[in-house]
Amino acid sequence: MTSTARVPDHLDDDALQTVTLTVNGSQRTVAVPTHRTLLDGLREEVGLPGTKSCCAEGECGACTVLLDGKAVNSCLVLCVEAEGHEVTTVEGLSADGLTDLQEEFLAAGAVQCGFCIPGQVVSAEYLLRTNPSPDETQIREALSGNLCRCAGYQRIVRAVQATAARRSER
Ligand code: FES
Ligand code: FES
Predict the structure, then answer these.
(1) pLDDT confidence of residue 5
(2) What span, in angstroms and rounded, lies between the C-alpha atoms of 15 and 107?
(3) Cα(76) to centroid of ligand 1, in Å?
(4) What's the 153 CA to ligand 2 centre distance in angstroms?
(5) Which of 81, 97, 119, 138 is deepest in the core (most CB within 10 A)?
(6) Which atom belonging to ligand 1 lies closest to the Cα atom of 54?
(7) Structural domain contains residue 4
(8) pLDDT: is 3 or 43 the higher one?
(9) Can you say how many angstroms the Cα of residue 80 is from the centroid of all Cα atoms in its chain?
(10) Any idea what the CATH number is for the domain that residue 127 is in?
(11) Rounded Cα distance, 99 and 93, in Å
């Protein structure tokens, strides 16, 4: 005889809530269970797979997005909490083509399997917007929440340094 685990009422997938977010400059309205994360909402409801899903515990940084301009782990934010806020994903950063930061990631050979790169790019972009001339320690600190299984950290740091230098010449 088989038994079916009872889903608690507050996790019932039928309990959908309508949420309106601004994603990459466009208003998007989605209907999600109240326990669904922003990460899931972006990937599954809005259809933006650039934000990666990995640990779902705030440990790896693969899911990093900008929420009202600040880098956050989208796996730790409920979709309903993002109601009325502005979300920028890696797709939004590169809406007009590769950014200078992404170009420098490629030039530095920092992209290996690529899985962590969207999160790294979003975190690095946040750093450069808040501190346009970071030193190496500041770069490593800012990216310390973004894990790279391919261990391309040195090249990632070089890419951020090159972007900072490039922007300082504008
Ligand atoms: S998936 Fe969000 S921090 Fe790992
Ligand atoms: S490039 Fe493979 S996990 Fe970072």
Answers:
(1) 44
(2) 47
(3) 8
(4) 9
(5) 119
(6) 1
(7) no
(8) 43
(9) 17
(10) 1.10.150.120
(11) 7
Using the atom order of ligand 2, give the atom closest to the CA of residue 112. 1
- CATH (domain of 77): 3.10.20.30
Domain endpoint, select from 43, 68, 93: 93
- What residues make up the domain containing 63? 9-93
pLDDT computed for residue 14 by the predictor: 60
> Is there an atom of ligand 2 within 6 Å of 156 CB?
no
Residue that finishes a domain, picked among 57, 74, 93? 93
The whole-angstrom separation of Cα 129 and Cα 132 is: 6
- Percent of the chain predicted with pLDDT > 70: 92
CA angle in degrees (0–180, nearest 5) for 29-67-143: 140
Tell me which of 51, 75, 143, 144 to substitute to probe ligand 1's pocket, judged by most ligand atoms within 8 Å of the beta carbon: 75
DSSP string, 119-157: HHHHHHHHHHHH-SS--HHHHHHHTTT---TT--HHHHH
Atom of ligand 2 nearest to the CA of 120: 4
Amino acid (one-letter) located at 95: A
Q: Is residue 151 part of a domain?
A: yes
Confidence band for 1, pLDDT divided at 50, 70 and 90: very low
